[in-house]
Amino acid sequence: CAVKIPGLGHRLWLVYTQGGGEEFILLTNLPVRKFSAALRVLRLYGWRWGVEELFRDMNEELGFQKIMVRTLRSINKLLEIALLVYIFAFSLLKKMGPLLAMLLELGGKLGLKGKSEDTIGRTLKGLSLLFIQCARSP
Predict the structure, then answer these.
(1) Where are the strands (E) in 20-134, listed by range?
(2) 121: which of 57, 87, 104, 127 fits an S-S bond (Cβ 3.0–4.6 Å)?
(3) CA-CA distances (angstroms) from residue 14 to 18, 23, 59, 61, 67?
């Protein structure tokens, strides 16, 4: 349904859905006049969540917020490297196997309540610790 907020110069649309025991109410500036448009908004929201997780993992596990480079070219190179590492960790997470189990354990999978989920962040943390150990070895 369309929503008009006083003082806001344009119309917004409300999209509501429920499933899996959860409810979502989204407010969007994309016109939603048909069911297919509502599905599109939900799909876009799902993609956005993935992007948010990507940047959270890059900041927390790859230290991206502490970059020391200043030029746009250097920042782009660093971002490309970080994305390659992220894609590598993602592919490891999807393939599973003994290496992944070791990386997840290194990354903090301790069997604790709330820490049992296999995540890209834990895979990245495990990779980071493995690289540090390799660098310290003679």
Answers:
(1) 22-28
(2) 57
(3) 14, 13, 32, 35, 39
CA distances from 44 to 10, 26, 38, 51, 61 (A): 20, 11, 10, 11, 25
User: What DSSP string runs through 113-124?
Assistant: TT--S--HHHHH
- pLDDT for 137 equals 73
User: pLDDT value at position 15?
Assistant: 92
What is the token pair recorded at 47?
A: 């993609």
Residue 121 has pLDDT above 60, yes or no: yes
Q: Contact at 8 Å (CB) between 92 and 100?
A: yes
Query: Residue 93 is encoded by which pair of tokens?
Result: 């997470």
